[in-house]
Amino acid sequence: MPHRTDVVVTDLRAEHGAPLLGLGTALPRLSWTARAAADVPATWEQSAYEVRVTPLPPVPGAEPPRSWSSGRVDSGDSVLVPWPAAPLRSRERVRVEVRLWGRDAEPTSFSRPLVLETGLLAPSDWTAVPVGPDWDEDPGVDHRPALLRREFSLPGPVARARLHVTAHGLHEVEVNGERVGDEVLAPGWTSYSHRLRHRTHDVTHLVREGGNAVGAWLADGWYRGRFGIRGGSRNLYGERTALIAQLEVDLADGRRVVVATGPGTGEDGGTWRAAHGPVLASNLYEGESHDARLAVPGFSTAGFDDSAWAGVRRYERDPATLVAADGPPVRCTREVLPVAVLTSPSGATILDFGQNLTGRLRIRVRGCAGDRVQLRHAEVLQDGELYTRPLRTARATDTYVLAGGGGTGEPEVWEPRFTMHGFRYAEVTGWPGRLDEGDVVARVHHSDMARTGWFSCSDDRLNRLHENVVWSMRSNFVDIPTDCPQRDERLGWTGDIQVFAPTAAFLYDCSGFLASWLRDVAVEQLPDGTVPWYVPRVPASFWEPPQPGAVWGDVAVLTPWVLFQRYGDVGVLRAQYASARAWVDLVERLAGPDRLWDSGLQLGDWLDPAAPPDRPAEARTDRYLVATAYFAHSARTLARTAHVLGEQEDAARYGALADEVREAFAREHLRPGGRLSSDAQTAYALALVFDLLPEGEREAAGRRLAELVAEDGNRVATGFAGVNLVTDALTTTGHDETAHALLTETGCPSWLYQVAMGATTTWERWDSMLPDGTVNPGQMTSFNHYALGSIADWMHRTVAGLAPAEPGYRRLLVRPRPGPGLTSAAARHETPRGTAAVSWRRDGDRLVVDVDVPLGVRAAVDLPGRPVSEVGAGRHPFEVATTTPPPPVPSPPRAAPQPA
Ligand code: BGC
Predict the structure, then answer these.
(1) Distance 492 CA to ligand 1 centre (A)
(2) Which of 388, 639, 753, 775 sits CB 3.0–4.6 Å from 748 for a disulfide?
(3) Segment (H or E) for 764
(4) Range 7-118 classified under CATH 1.10.1740.10
(5) What spacing in Å lies between the alpha carbon of 266 and ligand 1's midpoint?
């Protein structure tokens, strides 16, 4: 059939992009992008699609597989389109192709195929049960990681082999001496009792006819290692670690051999055995100790003598709680070399990596047996020494004892396996001989999401700020969205991600990552609707039992909505709907008939810079004003959610509730003359962005907010509750210049104060480092927290001018508001429908703007001094007159820059 060649279908993907192997659903939703391969009319739009599905049997048969086709489906949908074919079965492998029609008769050619394979979809597919070492252990201490192994034989050539694996604790698996995959901290952290994620690996190339062996390293991790706030607790999920592994090998003759963890002897006579390995201790906070003299070479190869090893014990686990991972794994994404080797005043050797990051060090070292190298990590120096007080009880210390071979010969290469640190600096002690370049490398680790968003402008300080936001996202998207990566905390604080999610969704594709975590929010929610302060819950903690708190609990409503807005994912709204409703219903009960939420523990505008360092909730904005504002906003967002889901009765009910709370807010907090009961930046920001004021009062509120900013010397005066709103509140009330003044201020507190102080990530506190270069005395002082970086979302939408106007960027809003002092800015985003970009530059008294709109998408272009216009796909240049001349170069920061 003839087909058109000017449009091609690209980026065909299933669910949230990855993983394609071991997919956990029988009905994977499909997305694709139409791209112009040649000149296509800007108005081209998909009007129909066809999906072709071809089964790929494990063992190629004589019969070529027959394809199934959806036929032509009249629809413009291209994002998360429902699976059109019969539900997939467990272990089914298929090739999927898509082609499209515009308004005319000729379709495009079929896309490049996407190969999908489901994992174990039904609990009954699991024969593996948890097994761990059969030795007695003291439950009151962290434990030495164990090794497990088993041999098996394959009675014929192999066609395909899959390993489905997870653990109680952390695992790393080897088959025939080779590591399986490159995932780190597997299986990550979920609410283990409800959901334990597994992954499927292709190990076809690692197994062979005849004798084989599988081996595993098993460590405490979140499951039973010391973890939590204020010292934490052990055994959060259980007292014993265990591996759950099911290796399924399809032989070329069609037989299937299954080697699964279980007690006793398998069909082929193989048994699981356990022993200690060279890792002496490993904990996420403390670090890892490894004695290479105790290495067990060849333990995962056939023929290894395990006669002295112990047996295994079996543990219980309902296989219905095993779920396939639906986001990317944690892995090393880059390596960073030291930028300087420092000698501290006390004589210590300190490596400076020039960048605060999350990861760990890999060392390459030569020396004698028993030489002990110690690596201590920290984010900052004070008085030239490693400064570890902010880590609290996290020791963040790795130790390697050399197997030895002397100063010549092959170097020993080591990196810890089951720990992670947040650091820029590392102190090295006990290094034998000279430390050469490349001997110590920082390996950056985080959930390996695809980067999707970029920003740049003519002010390098803002570029550094943006870079810091990206680094803090990288550092804290380590399987779950954490508050910080370094101290004895690293919890999935719900308020932090609630505030940061819009920024995150621009920078990286975190759709699968956050959808998975939101499942845990729902399962950890209390029966009355209370959302825990952090998810997964850490049962033994100061914050238990959880109490309902605004901003934090609102994650249940607001974050699914962000994922819908940014990724067009209706499924996540549906999956989280009951959880979202339970939250708003709870707050409705707590607020009572006057619709004011004025009770209970509220963290409010957490970390308002005016709050005393040891009382971060004592903000200028009343905490109950914050709570009622969020109540109104969540009720409104829930009404919108209900509408999208076709729940019209709920939409009307929550819409009416939102109206009532809005009125109650104004009644309680709006004073005659337009002032709010808390005359503070966050109060106005909430009232304006959440639309809580009568129409006639908005202008006065915007003016008052601008005045407050000016009175504060353009210093920011919000904590977590207002930080992502204050600039929007200014720009939507016509105070663009004040918003830019706030953004570009360098005095403390401000975003650029941190940059001026040499920050390479965003800090927890506006002044985590004080102007004199000392660390804030609060016992909670991280240099790597993302909440205050949520300004970046406004930078993308308003400084550069690229925003979604409809869910999934079906329509763009291009609305740059060039700030004084900037001569250019640009943002680019890989939307679910293709690449969108906006860039502008000043050319004399003209503003020159370029807009790139993906195929099938439209954009509303709103430029200063020009009526809004609507454009279709392609590149569109614009030029308008500018009125604001760039001001002179800003004055230098008040504080002397310090490395941080
Ligand atoms: C965390 C947060 C969190 C806060 C709430 C802190 O310890 O690091 O970012 O949201 O506690 O209490």
Answers:
(1) 9
(2) 753
(3) none
(4) no
(5) 49
